[in-house]
Amino acid sequence: MTIGRSIEKAVARLAADGFVAYPTETVWGLGACADRPVAIERLRAWKGRRGDSPLAVLVASVEAAIDLGCSFDPTAMRLARSFWPGPLMLIVPCARSWAPGVARTDGALGLRCSSHALARSLVEATEAAGLGPLTTTSLNRSGSPPTTRSAEARALAAARPGRDLESPFLLAAGEVDAGGAVPSSIVDCTGVEPRILRVGALDRAVLEAAWMHPACRRPEATPSDRIEGERIP
Predict the structure, then answer these.
(1) Nearest to 176, CA basis, from 135, 137, 148
(2) Buried b (16+ CB within 10 A) or exposed e, 41-67
């Protein structure tokens, strides 16, 4: 099956409230349409994800994220301009509502802009079909390591964890490896000061150097100004 045909089939599965697995520049991802509750429920059931741990969404650019109702303060904007497309998830305020389990309980949304060619092609095809943004979480069952190799992705997609659970469609039949074993870094930009929730492909020093730029300086925060958020896995 050609890459183009595989993307067409992935979009068809998404339109039918299914979910798909795709490679990124870090690990393999798992996605469904972010505004379709049935699709999100199916994805979370297959993954075994419980509780209110949020997912995140894939975007093509900062401008695409703003069109979704997301807000970027100077720090978030500088981080996005510095590292997108690339292995960085930013958590920012978002005015739009999503299917349950996508956004954080305070409405904040995790955003990824992948540099992997297949992931970007899938984002573009999903947007062109009018299906809205695609969620992103790692291709693995909750509590297991993320998937990086195509052979692992094929085996995981073929094994049904439950008799009544739908399995993901595997983009390009799992013939392309993900970029590496290290997941994306995560920075929460919803508070007065940015917070690194996970050091991944981008280390702490690199991230902090970006937001220490003079354009990102803010007034001194008081304790009451600080907002504690949930950790996105």
Answers:
(1) 148
(2) ebbbebbebeeeebbbbbbbebebbee
Would the CA dihedral through 8, 9, 11, 15 be positive or negative? positive
SS3 call for 20: strand
Which of the 8 DSSP states describes residue 111? E
* Closest alpha carbon to 46 in 110, 181, 137, 112: 137
Task: Give the pairing type, strands 86-92 and 185-188.
Answer: parallel
Contact 104, 94 (CB under 8 A): no
Which pTM value belongs to this model?
0.87
**For residue range 83-131, what is the model confidence (pLDDT) as tens digits?**
999 999 999 999 999 999 999 999 999 999 999 999 999 999 999 999 9
Over 29-44, what HEC string results?
A: EEECECCCHHHHHHHH
Q: Which two tokens stand for residue 210?
A: 């970006």
DSSP, res 222: P
- What tokens were used for 105? 């309980």
Count of other CB atoms within 10 angstroms of residue 188 = 25
What would you report as the CA-atom Rg of the chain, rounded to the nearest whole angstrom?
A: 17
Neighbours of 69 (CB within 10 A): 14
Q: Domains in the chain, start-ordered, CATH in brackets?
A: 3-218 (3.90.870.10)
Give the CA distances from residue 233 to residues 119, 125, 184, 210, in Å, rounded to whole numbers and listed in that order: 20, 27, 10, 23
What is the 8-class DSSP label of residue 86? E
Strand arrangement, sheet containing 29-31: 137-138, 29-31, 20-22, 169-170
